[in-house]
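We now fix the convention by which a protein and its fold are recorded. These numbers are not coordinates but entries in a learned vocabulary of local backbone shapes. A record is reproduced here so that you can trace the correspondence yourselves:
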Amino acid sequence: MHNPVTVIIDNLTFELRRSVRRKTIGITIGRMGELILSAPFDCPQDYIERAVREKYSWIYTKLARKEMLFKAPAAKRFVDGEGFYYLGRSYRLRLVPVRDNPPLELHNDRFLLREDAIDQGETHFTNWYTAQGRVWLQERVELFRYRVGAEPEAIKVQPLGYHWGSCGRNNILYFHWRTMLLPPSIIDYIIVHELVHLRGERHHQPSFWELVAQAMPDYVERKRWLAENGNSL
């Protein structure tokens, strides 16, 4: 692999990576929408540009989907009646007077936020989802690890940017705290997805999706739902 360079083809900017090992031209789109162009070391520039133009429709479709996925959800207001999701269901918020109770709790199908905690409402919700996730996700991972045949050392719940989950070093699984907003069936798909990575399938090749399908035959529908709805919660 030689040092990547930036190239502009028409109105698109690519990071061009040439490699003596590569035999074909490939285009990938990073999680932030960056365009990565991989090509054989001695591939002529005009051949590369022609290959890119043949893929214009695919590129713009993918970029539009990325823009939709990464569009920031509407900011929540910490006022009576505001809806907050938990496990796929929306619960209304109620502000309560200061008492001997936690700053935030879910009680009788309502999120209860103390009035003295409003200014730190976002932090309290993040902490609450994180705490719930540590317990709930651990139970689901225990169920699916046998189906997948993977042995995670631990799970951690934390902000992950645009990732729902990640398979890290030392066989540790990471999950975004926002997974706790999703329906359980969709969270299960994310868990299976990361467990398959843990088995050694680091890339989304056919063998990866075959293992996902073995553990979850209807994964395609769940994957589609996540792509279309995940960031709107």
Remarks:
- The domain at 129-232 is CATH 3.30.2010.10 (Zincin-like).
